Amino acid sequence: MTQALPQTSLYDRDFVAWCDDAVAKLKAGQLAEIDLENLIEEIEGLAGRDRREVRSRLDVLLAHLLKRIYVENFADWRGWENTIHEQRRELRILLEQSPSLRNHFIQSFDSSWQSALGNLRINYPEVQFPDIWPFSREIEALLSERFWQQ
Predict the structure, then answer these.
(1) Is residue 67 within a helix (H) or strand (E), and if so which, with residue range?
(2) How many CB atoms lie within 10 A of CB 131?
């Protein structure tokens, strides 16, 4: 007697084909034929991905702002400024595409600050970094001001 092999769904076999199929069914109004469970999971994943990206870019931005403001290593300043510019640009794009991420940006500030500060204190033990962020926490300020020139 032969055993039947378990059937795998299109979602498990070919994700891109599954996406194309789901889009085609949505466009055709074939809602009953949609793989709803996986569709919900993927949509939730997209929102989570964007939240993680905001947090990650904010971590990097704050770390490089701190380095540029407090670390007296002239040779690295240009590279740090380039990274600051890149993180700011990408954060602006994310916030323009999804304005609701502004709330996540604000809510993530304290944990991003602690993460950046902790890592920098390990990597630059000779530098006196402040315990609290001494500048504006406003999104527009964080995405534009040259705090090192103040």
Answers:
(1) helix 36-70
(2) 7
